[in-house]
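ok new one. same drill as before - structure tokens go in, u give me an amino acid for every spot. 126 of them this time. try not to just spam alanines like last time pls lmao
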């Protein structure tokens, strides 16, 4: 006897492939690239951002998808704050440098916090 086809609401989530150690390694490398941002003139996180977008599009695991989104959000908020504080840097070097340092510290904090939560198999902070 033939079984009926499953609809989207009846998807068997156990059929999804499980994550391999290689998948975890990729996430750790992406977090490392993001953490290296302030020390590489923001070049490495751009590479990581591209990989985040590509990986997130194919991601079936909610933990991994949320961490990709978290890294993407952190990157774009940092870029926004760097652009907003740019006039301070151009007009007044010291306040601008202080503002950019605060943005860099905030970025590192978010990346390290997310990385630690990923290492513990927890969803990223909101």
């Amino acid at each position: 006897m033939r079984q009926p086809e499953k609809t989207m609401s009846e998807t068997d989530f156990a059929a999804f492939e499980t994550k391999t150690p290689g998948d975890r390694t990729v996430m750790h490398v992406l977090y490392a690239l993001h953490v290296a941002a302030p020390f590489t003139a923001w070049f490495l996180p751009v590479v990581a951002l591209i990989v985040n977008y590509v990986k997130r599009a194919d991601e079936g695991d909610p933990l991994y998808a949320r961490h990709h989104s978290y890294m993407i959000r952190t990157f774009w908020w940092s870029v926004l704050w760097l652009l907003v504080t740019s006039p301070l840097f151009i007009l007044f070097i010291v306040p601008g440098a202080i503002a950019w340092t605060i943005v860099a510290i905030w970025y590192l904090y978010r990346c390290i916090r997310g990385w630690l939560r990923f290492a513990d198999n927890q969803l990223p902070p909101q």
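The radius of gyration is 19 Å. and btw The chain has one domain: 20-119.
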